[in-house]
């Protein structure tokens, strides 16, 4: 059977694309995960079977999604195919063999490795539903079409290399030069020591010359003090450079992260992003730890190898043979070590997300008496991490057994040869002691090389994960070609807009929407929950790009306007608006270095929260948020309204901005806001009639489409959908 190529998934949502990548490689076409992601409609749960079929079709496969029995999988489905595994994962079935009347299935699991399954094991993981009394499983059958053969082969080595990160060393050339000189000095000092040991025994002790022995020992003390001094200076330089590089690496990553479009964050778990930030430490350790140390270890190795050759060429040959076998033994296990690292990352990301969720959602957990279930959920992840750790320990012990065997065997053989040479008079006792020291100095670079190889592998894996972020197109890549001045008239026009959150051209949240929002008018959007109101607001704010159609400011598509300009000219209060762990003043005047006190007071007055702030001992300097004082939902909404008012934008977008307020507060705020609305373009999403009744135009959404449009009076007279939405509030039915 043709050997099957294998690729690990980089995180949980990549399993389907990793399977597709393996099958494409099986048919001798290479695709990177980043290329496949461009064609994929990825949600936070990953790619659906339908989405996977779309991606496969894009690169030229003919696909068919099936619900089939085990017998049909064995007899009718072309291999390799993709199986839906445990109802939350994808694997590749690339071979079926029959042994002793039982079928054995060859599975490529991107979360693990190439594994063989028995019939019973496969049934437990794959067969998920019943159809006509038979257990069936879901499979995506694939065969390369004509278009697949015409596609160009893609290099698998795309993305940033280590050179991308080596540029971070450039500003520290002076410090690196000092490090190199220090290490070179230490190497030269170490070179003197074996000769001092030899003359100490062969001259000082043999001749009984105490003065000479004292002189040699003083020289050794001076060399040791010099080495220690160089090591101290080296440690301080490394601390300085390491700290600077670490900050710069993560800072640049955060800069890139903040430039990515909103859609990226819909598909990423918080724990996954946190683990990627930690990946930078492995790259830093490689750049500043292993690489420099290993470089000079090799210098030491060659220096002491020449010295050993001078003493005894046979001993050098035995040492090189034994340590070559030792290095090969370690390198044999590198592939398995990589698999464990990728699995550890996936579980650690899940553990991080679970822990953050548990802490931040403690109120809901306690209210619903689900403390035990949530703790068990976290413990199950810990068990998986523990199992991975056990496998890592077992791997380390197997490597250790081999290293001890090769090292000890080599050292015993060398000791025997050296002892025999002394007995035969071919070598002095001092030379033998010097030889022992040289062997120790030669062994150290070998250990450094193994550490280097392992840290290089870690850094390479981390780079693959970070490349996913760094290679993504951000909002500012073509920002220079975008408009920096808004059109003068500034009406918002939406033309034939369709949108789905996963990017697929189906299951639209908004379907073929066209509407006109006039400048300096108040437009309200109403509709039942799930009708697409919030989504429409997000599209107008530029959170997402529509699948079809456009959002225009007058005649200019929103995507052609500099996003920083648009955000500077818009203010918004969203349902999930965030309160920072900062003072009330800093929460209202977000991003302001110097807060305008008059604007601040004006904003809190309009938001009707001034009395509450004045009642606090620290007033505007009271810290709120996760690390400060708790505030009610109504106070939170009023602070968010004050934030939007303080910004004093040309366009205002309110998404259920007053739904947590009592009637009195809402009435006062709305009175203030209608005064503030003058000269601004306002879009309000709300269920409450009191919020939308006085709007210049009301748009009624129903299941992603515009059902009605008009003023409050016009819509109530029609007695349509709008009338049904508000009749209980107005008691129109009486």
Quick recap of the structure?
One of its GO terms (molecular function) is ATP hydrolysis activity. The chain is of the alpha+beta class and 734 residues long.
Describe it for me?
The protein is α+β, with helices and mostly antiparallel strands and 734 residues long. It contains 26 helices and 17 strands. 57% of the residues lie in helices and 14% in strands. The strands form three sheets. Strands 1, 2, 3, 4, 5, 6 and 7 form a seven-stranded antiparallel beta sheet that branches. A six-stranded mixed beta sheet has the order 13-14-15-10-16-17, with helices on both faces. It folds into three domains: 12-148, Cathepsin B, Chain A (Alpha-Beta Complex); 160-469, ABC transporter type 1, transmembrane domain (ABC transporter transmembrane region fold, Up-down Bundle); 519-528 and 568-730, P-loop containing nucleotide triphosphate hydrolases (Rossmann fold, 3-Layer(aba) Sandwich), CATH 3.40.50.300.
**How would a crystallographer describe the biggest sheet?**
7 strands, antiparallel
By secondary-structure content and strand pairing, the structural class works out as alpha+beta
The level 1 CATH classification of the largest domain is Mainly Alpha
Report the strand count. 17
How far do the termini sit from each other? 79 Å
**Can you tell me the number of structural domains?**
3
| Apparent shape | globular
Q: Give me the CATH superfamily of the largest domain.
A: ABC transporter type 1, transmembrane domain
How much of the sequence lies in strands comes to: 5-15%
CATH fold call of the largest domain: ABC transporter transmembrane region fold
Main location: membrane
Pfam families: ABC_membrane (PF00664), ABC_tran (PF00005), Peptidase_C39 (PF03412)
Subcellular location: Cell membrane
Protein name: Peptidase domain-containing ABC transporter
């Amino acid at each position: 059977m043709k050997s099957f190529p294998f690729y690990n998934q980089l995180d949980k949502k990549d399993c389907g694309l990793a399977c597709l990548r393996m099958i494409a490689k099986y048919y001798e076409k290479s695709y990177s995960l980043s290329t496949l992601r461009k064609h994929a409609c990825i949600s936070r749960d990953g790619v659906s079977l339908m989405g996977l079929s779309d991606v496969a079709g894009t690169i030229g496969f003919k696909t068919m999604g099936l619900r089939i029995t085990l017998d049909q999988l064995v007899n009718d489905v072309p291999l390799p195919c993709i199986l839906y595994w445990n109802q939350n994962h994808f694997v590749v079935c690339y071979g079926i063999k029959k042994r002793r009347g039982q079928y054995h299935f060859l599975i490529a699991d991107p979360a693990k490795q190439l594994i063989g399954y028995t019939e019973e094991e496969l049934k437990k993981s794959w067969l998920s539903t019943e159809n006509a009394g038979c257990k069936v499983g879901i499979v995506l059958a694939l065969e390369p079409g004509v278009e697949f053969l015409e596609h160009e082969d893609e290099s698998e080595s795309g993305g940033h290399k280590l050179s991308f990160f080596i540029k971070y060393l450039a500003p520290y050339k002076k410090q690196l030069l000092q490090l190199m000189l220090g290490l070179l000095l230490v190497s030269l000092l170490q070179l003197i020591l074996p000769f001092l040991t030899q003359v100490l025994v062969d001259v000082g002790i043999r001749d009984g010359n105490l003065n000479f022995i004292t002189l040699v020992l003083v020289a050794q003390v001076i060399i040791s003090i010099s080495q220690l001094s160089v090591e101290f200076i080296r440690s301080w330089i490394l601390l300085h450079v390491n700290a600077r590089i670490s900050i710069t690496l993560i800072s640049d990553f955060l800069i890139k992260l903040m430039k990515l479009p909103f859609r990226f964050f819909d598909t990423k778990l918080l724990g996954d992003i946190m683990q990627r930030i930690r990946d930078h430490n492995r790259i830093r350790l490689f750049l500043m730890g292993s690489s420099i140390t290993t470089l000079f270890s090799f210098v030491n190795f060659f220096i002491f190898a020449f010295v050993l050759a001078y003493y005894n060429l046979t001993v050098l040959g035995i040492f090189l043979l034994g340590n070559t076998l030792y290095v090969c033994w370690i390198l044999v296990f590198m592939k398995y070590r990589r698999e464990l690292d990728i699995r550890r990352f996936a579980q650690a990301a899940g553990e991080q997300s679970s822990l953050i969720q548990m802490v931040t959602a403690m109120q809901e957990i306690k209210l619903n008496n689900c403390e035990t279930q949530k703790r068990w959920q976290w413990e199950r992840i810990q068990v998986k991490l523990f199992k991975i750790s056990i496998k890592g320990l077992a791997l380390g012990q197997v490597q250790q057994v081999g290293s001890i065997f090769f090292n000890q065997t080599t050292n015993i053989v060398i000791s025997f040869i050296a002892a025999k040479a002394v007995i035969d008079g071919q070598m002095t006792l001092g030379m033998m002691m010097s030889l022992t020291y040289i062997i120790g100095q030669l062994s150290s670079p070998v250990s450094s090389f193994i550490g280097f190889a392992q840290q290089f592998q870690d850094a390479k894996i981390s780079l693959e994960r970070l490349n996913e972020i760094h290679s993504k197109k951000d909002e500012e890549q073509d920002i220079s070609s975008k408009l920096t001045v808004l059109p003068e008239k500034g009406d918002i026009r939406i033309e034939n807009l369709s949108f789905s959150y996963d990017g697929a051209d189906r299951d639209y949240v908004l379907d073929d929407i066209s509407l006109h929002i006039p400048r300096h008018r108040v437009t309200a959007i109403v509709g039942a929950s799930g009708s697409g109101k919030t989504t429409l607001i997000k599209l107008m704010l530029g959170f997402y790009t529509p699948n079809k159609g456009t959002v225009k400011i007058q005649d200019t598509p929103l995507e052609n306007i500099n996003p920083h300009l648009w955000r500077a000219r818009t203010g918004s209060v969203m349902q999930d608006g965030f309160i920072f762990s900062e003072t009330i003043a800093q929460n209202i005047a977000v991003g302001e270095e110097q807060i305008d006190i008059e604007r601040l007071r004006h904003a809190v007055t309009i938001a009707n929260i001034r009395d509450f702030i004045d009642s606090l001992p620290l007033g505007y300097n009271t810290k709120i948020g996760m690390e400060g004082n708790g505030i009610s939902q109504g106070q939170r909404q009023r602070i968010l309204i004050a934030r939007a008012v303080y910004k004093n934008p040309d366009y205002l977008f309110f998404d259920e901005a007053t739904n947590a307020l009592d009637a009195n507060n809402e009435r006062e705020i709305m009175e203030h806001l209608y005064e503030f609305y003058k000269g601004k373009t306002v879009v309000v999403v709300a269920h409450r009639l009191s919020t939308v009744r006085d709007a210049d135009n009301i748009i009624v959404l129903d299941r992603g489409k515009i059902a009605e449009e008009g003023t409050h009076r016009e819509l109530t007279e029609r007695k349509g959908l709008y009338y049904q939405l508000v009749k209980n509030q107005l008691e129109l039915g009486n």
